[in-house]
Design goal:
By secondary structure, the protein is α+β, with helices and mostly antiparallel strands. It contains eleven helices and 19 strands. The strands form five sheets. It has a five-stranded antiparallel sheet with strand order 13-12-11-14-15, sandwiched between helices. It has a four-stranded antiparallel sheet with strand order 7-10-8-9, sandwiched between helices. It has a four-stranded antiparallel sheet with strand order 16-19-17-18. The radius of gyration is 24 Å and the shape is globular.
Length: about 400
Amino acid sequence: MKLAILSRAPHAYSTQRLRTAAEERGHTVKVLNTLRFAIDLTGEQPDLLYRGKLLSDYDAVLPRIGNSITYYGTAVVRQFEQMDVYTPNTANGITNSRDKLRANQILSRHDIGMPATTFVSSRADVRGAIERVGGAPVVIKLLEGTQGIGVILAPEAKVAESIVETLHSTKQNVLIQSFISESRGKDIRALVVGDRVVAAMRRSASGDEFRSNVHRGGTVEQVTLTPEYEEAAVRSAQIMGLRVAGVDMLEGNDGPLVMEVNSSPGLEGIERATGLDVAGAVIDFIANQVAFPEIDVRQRLSVSTGYGVAELLVHTNADLVGKTIKDSGLWDRDITVLTLHRGTSVIPNPRSGVALEPGDRLLCFGKLEEMRSMIPDRRRRRTKLRKLPTASLPDS
């Protein structure tokens, strides 16, 4: 395959390892500076220019986009997607993972274990937020910090209030999270590629430092994950829309607590800690996907007027409970069930004989009006356009 690696640091360890792994496997690979692209929307088809010239054809692109250029970098990735070039990490996935609040909001909807988190704007609300996450000490995080920068441990509520007030005065948005004392300055980084964890390490903070990032002097060691931790890591990456990701987890008393999903994980620490060819696993995955790429189903199926993709919840008292998909009447209403979500399990293309249970979530394609009518107590009538009263119109 012909692979483009988007990176502004061609000599960085991760970029070099990915390039070497691709070349060793016989692929053609180019490292391209993300900021040297220009997006061309003037023609009939979307195009990209690189250093002023029309970009040649590529089979796949691997984004290595830093925080400082997230907006421009994701615009370039999105253009590759419009050109049907495969990318393991979509523009939406990268954007979602970069905003800590947005990432937490998305993961919380899917029952992913996380440290208790709150987000407030007013200083008057800080004390209540601290109490809701279990009281001091608390961790205060900037929404777009990296490598442990912008992560502060506040030992007391008054200190936390002062820190939040100071950060708000500089137009910074922050999260307030519970401090997981049982983690004892340690966390786990799992490197997810596709639908499996290819490598994992435990990071330990140095001295009195509570942040375990290697950039802050932390140490690393290889670790074998339990199925519970591996499932949490893989599901988190997939929920975020990332097929290559570093998932950071704390070891809580009740199981894994996901802290962050990184769309451009560094490879140096985890390869040296585990001795595994992580870069090779990434390249092999991309090569396998090029011939059979994933697509954005919602985007492809929402182009017909009146049709779209929606999720239907099977309520406890709904008429659907106990009925099979065949007998549910969905087909008669021109609604097709694409997947059935039951707890943490996902059943793609469920058989017609599957009986529906309370709490099931059905991802469906069909007539939007029919699907809207199945939402209890929220049935919407078709809105009518009324003429503006001529008497109220101002004189020209």
